Amino acid sequence: MTGSEFHGVWPYLVSPVDDAGRVLDQVLARLCEDLIAAGVHGLVALGSTGEFAYLSLAQRRRVVQVVVEATAGRVPVLAGVASTSVAGAVAMAREWQQLGCDGLLAMIEAYFPLNEEGIYGYFAAIASASERPVVLYTNPKFQKTDLSLALIGRLSRLPAICHIKDASGDTGRLLSILACTEGRLGVFAASAHIPACVMLIGGRGWMAGPACLAPHQSIALYEQCRAGHWEEAMALQRPLWQLNQAFARHNLAACIKGGLALQGYAVGAPLPPQSPLTPQGQDEVRQALQAIGAL
User: Fold this and answer.
1) Which of 2, 39, 46, 239 has the most Cβ atoms closer than 10 angstroms to its Cβ?
2) Cβ atoms within 10 Å, residue 40
3) DSSP structural state of residue 271
4) Residue 174 pLDDT > 70, yes or no?
5) What does the buried/exposed string (b/e) look like for 197-220 if buried means 16 or more CB atoms within 10 Å of the residue's CB?
6) Average pLDDT of 204-226?
7) Cα gap 203→112, rounded to integer Å
8) How many helices (H) and strands (E) does the chain have?
9) Which CATH architecture has domain 3-214?
């Protein structure tokens, strides 16, 4: 599958790590296997739900290796690239490609404020280092540095950059992105958006942590949207949105890992210094999963 063909439901995978810092290979591989069997269209390693900011380079490398090996070419794999430096991002981009990923999810980490030229240079360097499709990822809630519409339009003209995943929660912004990029970028939603609405305005699908917990339900929603059956799609969307609402009240990685634990995956706790779910949070996640038939 080429970058222009990316579409559908792409779960943001968790990064299961034990107390000694070892990646739990078998747990992660089993999750990949089950998600592929459920019919997902792709997998994303080292996204926000993958807690990339709390992983060492060696741990990130192992996560990518496990996901690529477990997937074995059956669906495309994106691997997250995030660094505070251009050199670090470029090195990571090159290594993930050597490990066999099918594309890169490009994010920026910043300590000091950056101007537009600095941000453009960062993403342009990743694109230049990539022989595979690049998906821009913008999450203004958590990132110090966001991408303006003008900058997104400019980056969309780089051949390697094919898509954007926007986690702003502002669906009007997605419509503006579609307009300013004039078809050059495919737009993916995040869990902060209502996926059916994003599909209605021309989105390609969604990349999100909750799809790890509800792959069958997410795929059913996508298929109804793809067919233009909007009444049926909204009937599926409403209970799924309640799951997202439960997650919005707690740490996302803790919710996804807590939910997966309820489903029988020993993924462990969120990585320190994050806190695990409170008992109240556990109850909310359990009830939300039961409501959609995912538990």
Assistant:
1) 46
2) 25
3) P
4) yes
5) bbbeeebbbbbbbbbbbbbebbbb
6) 96
7) 33
8) 12, 8
9) Alpha-Beta Barrel (3.20)
Half-sphere exposure of 216 (CA within 13 A, CB side): 8
Would you put residue 228 in left (φ > 0), alpha (ψ -120 to 50) or beta?
left
Q: What are phi and psi of 166, to 5 degrees?
A: -110, 125
Spatial CB neighbours of 283, under 8 Å, sequence gap ≥ 6: none
d(CA 197, CA 237): 10
User: Where are the chain's structural domains?
Assistant: 3-214
Which residues lie across from 208 on neighbouring strands? 11
Q: Quick one: which of 134, 148, 127, 71 has its CA closest to 105?
A: 134
For 257, the enclosing helix (H) or strand (E) is: helix 252-262
CA dist 61 and 186 (Å) reads: 27
Cis peptide before 210 (omega within 30 of 0): no
Beta strands 8-11 and 134-138 are: unpaired
**pLDDT for position 66:** 98
Q: Which two tokens mark 126?
A: 């990743």
Instruction: DSSP letter for 12, please.
Output: B
Strand partners, 187: 164
Active-site residue set: 137, 165
